[in-house]
């Protein structure tokens, strides 16, 4: 396991748990939960979180240092390709040329389902401009493959709707995406508890990104630690290779030879 490192945009990442920074009670709770999660990559909603664009307000960078974490600016709240592109250009300026970003272009404010037409358009432009794009997408294997072909460094299909906590609703589609992908597949959105994260990793996902499941738990710091363990356990289970399922057939766990008569 020591050599089991996630390679993301050409760089090694030890933790396969990526976390967000929204919905916490305050910046101190944000800091404590992220520390407990063990995450190295922390995603930040540029349109909703101050990282220096509002100099008279408290900055997230006061508690989440870019020297310790890799910041992943995202386009949460964007509904068009142009809004998303503009937001990430701003992020690059604020973060001194930072190129690793998370693209999401939403379809409507009720489901927060991705608008894949706008997502594809934004991804093409951003890749051409030198961004390393991790992209939130539907669990459509064709769309996921197209985003990879455009040049995205990771595809991030939703497990279920953002903030729903419903877990993985379609493991079959995720399995197809994982089987076909040549870039990391990271589940993004819908995780509700530790078992959801473990299942994602057992399916073969390269990682899990979450925010609400930790931030809205009754004890966010404790849940962050649970998610850390779940991702690690799920990854180990995937690498170990589970036993085959045997429908309607038992198999004794103890030896059947040499029984005392």
3D structure, described in words:
By secondary structure, the protein is of the alpha/beta class. The chain contains eight helices and ten strands. The strands form three sheets. It has a five-stranded parallel β-sheet with strand order 5-4-3-10-9. A three-stranded parallel β-sheet has the order 6-7-8, with helices on one face. A two-stranded antiparallel ribbon has the order 1-2. The mean pLDDT is about 90.
Overall pLDDT level = 90
Total strands: 10
Shape: globular
Q: For the largest sheet, list the strands in their spatial order.
A: 5-4-3-10-9
Stretches where pLDDT falls below 50 for ≥5 residues?
A: none
| N- and C-termini, Cα separation | 45 Å
Overall SS class: alpha/beta
* Helix fraction by DSSP (H/I, runs of at least 4): 25-40%
Largest sheet: 5 strands, parallel
Reading the helices and strands in chain order gives EEEHEEHEHEHEHEHEHH
Strand content: 15-25%
Total helical elements: 8
Radius of gyration: 20 Å
Would you summarize the structure shown here?
The protein has 261 residues and is α/β, with parallel strands linked by helices. Helix content is 35%, strand content 16%.
Question: SSE layout and pairings?
Answer:
Layout: E1 6-8, E2 11-13, E3 17-20, H1 27-37, E4 41-45, E5 70-74, H2 81-94, E6 100-103, H3 116-128, E7 132-137, H4 141-150, E8 154-157, H5 171-180, E9 186-188, H6 194-202, E10 207-210, H7 212-215, H8 220-240
Parallel strand pairs: 3-4, 3-10, 4-5, 6-7, 7-8, 9-10
Antiparallel strand pairs: 1-2
Helix pairs in contact: 1-8, 2-3, 3-4, 4-5, 6-8
């Amino acid at each position: 396991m020591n050599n089991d490192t996630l390679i993301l945009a050409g760089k090694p990442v030890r933790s396969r748990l990526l976390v967000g920074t929204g919905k916490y009670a305050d910046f101190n709770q944000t800091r404590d939960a992220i520390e407990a999660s063990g995450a190295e990559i922390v995603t930040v909603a540029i349109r909703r979180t101050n990282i220096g664009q509002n100099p008279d307000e408290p900055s997230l960078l006061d508690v989440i240092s870019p020297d310790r974490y890799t910041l992943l600016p995202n386009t949460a709240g964007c509904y068009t390709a142009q809004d998303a592109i503009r937001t990430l250009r701003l992020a690059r300026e604020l973060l001194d040329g930072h190129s690793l970003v998370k693209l999401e272009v939403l379809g409507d404010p009720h489901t927060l389902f991705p608008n894949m037409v706008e997502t594809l358009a934004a991804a093409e432009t951003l890749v051409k401009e030198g961004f390393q794009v991790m992209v939130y997408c539907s669990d459509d294997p064709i769309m996921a493959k197209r985003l990879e072909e455009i040049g995205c460094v990771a595809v991030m299909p939703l497990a279920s709707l953002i903030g729903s906590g419903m877990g993985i609703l379609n493991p079959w589609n995720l399995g197809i995406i994982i089987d076909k992908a040549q870039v990391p597949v990271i589940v993004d959105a819908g995780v509700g508890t530790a078992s959801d994260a473990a299942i994602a990793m057992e399916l073969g996902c390269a990682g899990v990104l979450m925010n609400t499941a930790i931030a809205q738990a009754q004890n966010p710091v404790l849940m962050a630690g649970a998610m850390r363990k779940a991702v690690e356990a799920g990854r180990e289970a995937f690498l170990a290779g589970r036993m085959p399922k045997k429908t309607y057939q038992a198999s004794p766990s103890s030896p059947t030879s040499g029984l005392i008569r």
